[in-house]
Amino acid sequence: MATGEIRRFGIRLLSLLPVTIERVGNLPEKPLREQVRNFSVIFSCGAHYTVELPKLEFAQCLDSLGLSSNRFYGVSNRALWRSSSFEGIKKQIFEQLRGRCEELSDIDAKAALLLINSLRPGSLTLPIETEELSITPNDSVVGRAEGLIYTFAQGSCVVLGVQTDKAFYLAHYQKHLIGQMLSVVKKVLESGSETGKAFYIVADYPADVVEKIREEWPQVVRIFQHTKKFKSDGNYNLKVVVDGATLASFYRSTVHPDSFYEQPFRRFGYEMVWPFEVDPVLFEEVS
User: Fold this and answer.
1) Can you tell me whether residue 105 is helix, strand or coil?
2) Any idea what DSSP says for residue 273?
3) Among 166, 182, 220, 282, fewest CB within 10 Å belongs to which?
4) How far is CA 161 from CA 6, 75, 142, 200, 224, in A?
5) Per-residue pLDDT tens for 86-123?
6) Among 188, 86, 60, which residue's Cα sits nearest to residue 136?
7) Of 115, 125, 64, 117, nearest to 90 (Cα)?
8) In this structure, what are the phi and psi dihedrals at residue 147, rounded to the nearest 5 degrees?
9) 227 DSSP β-pair partners
10) Domains and CATH numbers, the chain
11) Sorting pLDDT into bands at 50, 70 and 90, what band is 147?
12) Residue 262 has pLDDT above 90, yes or no
């Protein structure tokens, strides 16, 4: 048996061994975004496979969140999920972190926390909407008249924004589902008797989307595109500032995924807490 196969077999065995986590006091006063990242390492349920948590990383995350464990060696995400205390403690830490986000007025950290908390193995994440923000997960569309819309971890997917006279809509779909995405967007607009007056495309090959938009909406006045090269630009987290019928502004944070393939315990949430750039994303208007 090859070394890699032995390691994978060992990780699967580790996932069968119970791990107990306990609270050892109040949530420590530590940097908020560091704590949200550490929450993702321990409590994110977004992985569809078994992931080992290295001893040092696990210990640091526990300390950051005021937790302890009966074991530090051979801990996996699935072993944590099987702990009888996992869901209860996750809920407590989530509520306390959300309170800190509101106390510190860190809406970006709050958006990342809300999405991380919603991830479940083997199931699609539903759109999240609060009074101040909305989150578009993969293969979905959300819209609002004002406030903020987020979408996270855009790799090779296509993100499409649609400005109408009433609201702004943001779609995030896998690139082989462009046709489905446009069909869903069209139904959403028709249900509200709205007409798209400007389209924003963020994709590796936006020209493919431009062509399909013009086929579906020949009357569209303006189309803007941003070419995102996944191999060089990495993953995007996007924040869209919506203000009624005013053309929206996009902001991004960028992280290259290589580090997360090397350290899979830092995926499924950790990358969502990177700070957004101050300057807006530049779009080119398509003539």
Assistant:
1) coil
2) G
3) 282
4) 46, 41, 10, 5, 9
5) 999 999 999 999 999 999 999 999 999 999 999 987 66
6) 188
7) 117
8) 115, -145
9) 203
10) 3-117 (no CATH), 125-285 (3.30.1330)
11) very high
12) no
